[in-house]
């Protein structure tokens, strides 16, 4: 039976840090690590088709089970022959999340000073770097949360959907992804509920693993390490999840409100994670500055919609830093591509002036070209980091 434990190879360990270069082998191809994983929410990165994504050098991509549950339903994808065939991404591996993150994040509102205490909410939690509360008037609202699972209202057609650890795994089996993420709960920041949700998320992951192991289908499953910014809770989470035969580990939940806090948290927990010799994925981080500062801890893969989100707003990655192509200064940059070192479809064929024009006119092709560019640059950035690690410069 294929498993990531046997299929991950760490080819080079830096002498300067815990950074490592490796390869994750899956039934649908190889992922070079450390690598960037673009978020293809409903089977495509917004504004960019999958052929362009592959041309930009992407290997592993991240799809959201929640969105496939809402439409067209995992059965339709299964009937098509699985996600790889359905979205025509046959040459690379796919990781799918459980749907848990969206159940919480899509029914939540970021807590701002203006909102504090003004909206009735049953539940507050931290997601990545912000605090959220559940706004019960939201169309994608969380309806109930108990030991069995979570019930939420579809933002697409208002239908009530119940997701349990078992049904999330079965949906991901129907999708046929290479790496499955088990259903987890973002622990409440309410002190009374925090420990209850912390323990529940581990029970849910155990149930998920049992469901997966009963019918592995050549897929792998990562755990999701929780505990927020509390190092002792993070250690407890690792104590519990390391006892279970997961194929890799993902770091989930809150990782602090700024880069320094994230750095301190990873410094404390990463030595134990890398000692498992299994792949380590950091959920939801994808800006070059954070990746550059965190790579030394030995993280293998990072996923984030950040680089593709900023592309759609006109912010394009380049050698000299991010440029805002909407600025008037690019109106007549006829002889200059976005970035001379970039091999993407936008840089090979178009000038900054034309992209500036497409952006100002809100032409749809702008989103495709800008997104393909930022993904190419992210993949190139990861390639340069891998080279630095093998030269022991990181
Ligand atoms: Zn480019």
From TrEMBL:
Signal peptide feature range: none
Q: Which UniProt keywords apply?
A: Glycosyltransferase, Metal-binding, Transferase, tRNA processing
Location of the tRNA-guanine(15) transglycosylase-like domain: 18-114, 140-393
Molecular function GO labels: metal ion binding; tRNA-guanosine(34) queuine transglycosylase activity
Please give the superkingdom of this protein's source: Eukaryota
Q: Where does the sequence pass through the membrane? A: none
Q: Name one Pfam family in it.
A: TGT
Q: Does the keyword Zinc apply?
A: no
What's any GO biological process attached to this entry?
Answer: tRNA modification
User: tRNA processing: present as a keyword of the record?
Assistant: yes
Which NCBIfam families does UniProt cross-reference here?
Answer: Q_tRNA_tgt, tgt_general
Q: What is this protein called?
A: tRNA-guanine(15) transglycosylase-like domain-containing protein
| Lineage per the UniProt record | Eukaryota, Amoebozoa, Evosea, Variosea, Cavosteliida
